[in-house]
Design goal:
6 helices; two-stranded antiparallel ribbon; Rossmann fold; 2 domains; 12 strands; binds NADP nicotinamide-adenine-dinucleotide phosphate; 8-stranded mixed beta sheet
């Protein structure tokens, strides 16, 4: 091999080593920022929200759990703190969310008239949108728990399947999830993600496995809806926090 060719090989090697070192540096930085995430979680006292809190803490994230009764949040992990807040109160939200990497909402509650407009999920999304407008580019992204009734089965949306009776508290709650999607979709550039359980969701096991779907309910090979455990739903939730793939989207989470 001539001297000229040897230098070329050495130069190539040097560039490859430099590129490798830069990539390793970037990966270290990325994993540092993931492990240092600051999460504000509304609904930390709830069925699904408490599983999301547990999953986030198990991965070393810092969690601010928000509740109207923060004394009910008795988690002793040093990375957890409880604060008082109402997800429908703009001033309260503006005191709590600045500086967070993500705001998580796993909430529910009917308004006085059972309407979807007065349901807490709908009001929370509108409060977040108002807060994000005030905070501008510093607004943390939002991830909200959705509902399987907004998903489709054989081309028919759950909400329109005849299963839900208008005027009932249940109808108000599920219809509110459609309003949440409408609210977020109407604001260009908003950093939102809605994660809907794909079918039923109940307390169960953490397997660490799940599939991500779109607007259609996920089914197994026999066509049966798979559903998801609250624990694995929480895994999917924190995976999306750590590795954002669905900003500006609704996704379904099932087996
Ligand atoms: N198959 C499905 O698609 C499916 C099934 C179940 C649930 N979900 C959805 O999952 C979400 C969570 O349901 P869940 O059963 O886990 O709820 P949950 O156990 O009833 O908990 C509700 C939470 O909402 C919080 N909350 C209510 N109003 C609030 C307010 N004004 N300000 C702050 N926090 C408020 C409560 O916090 P504090 O009382 O501590 O303030 C509580 O932690 C809901 O959106 C629900 O529709 C979907």
């Amino acid at each position: 091999m001539s001297k000229f060719n040897l230098s070329a090989v050495e130069g190539l090697l040097a560039r490859q080593i430099t590129a490798g070192l830069m990539l390793a540096g970037c990966m270290l930085l990325a994993s540092f920022s993931v492990s240092a995430a600051n999460l504000v979680i509304y609904g930390a006292s709830g069925n699904i929200g408490s599983k999301i809190v547990a999953e986030a803490l198990s991965r070393g994230h810092k969690v601010t759990g928000v509740s109207r009764k923060p004394e009910s949040l008795t988690i002793t992990n040093p990375n957890f703190k409880a604060v008082k807040g109402d997800v429908t109160d703009l001033n309260s939200m503006l005191e709590i969310i600045p500086g967070a990497d993500a705001v998580i909402m796993s909430i529910r509650g009917n308004g006085a008239d059972n309407s979807a407009e007065e349901e807490v999920d709908n009001k929370a999304s509108l409060t977040y949108i108002a807060a994000a407008k005030k905070l501008g580019s510093k607004a943390p992204r939002v991830l909200q728990v959705g509902n399987q009734a907004t998903l489709y089965r054989n081309g028919v949306q759950g909400l329109k399947s005849g299963k839900y009776e208008e005027g009932t508290a249940f109808y108000g709650r599920v219809m509110a999830h459609q309003l949440v999607l409408n609210n977020y979709q109407a604001v260009p550039g908003l950093k939102w993600t809605v994660l809907s359980p794909s079918g039923g969701i109940a307390a169960g096991k953490r397997t660490g496995k799940y599939r991500i779907g779109g607007d259609d309910v996920l089914t197994d090979e026999s066509g049966k809806e798979t559903g998801i455990s609250q624990e694995d739903f929480a895994v999917a939730f924190i995976d999306e926090v750590e590795h954002p793939k669905a900003i500006g989207k609704r996704i379904g989470i099932g087996y």
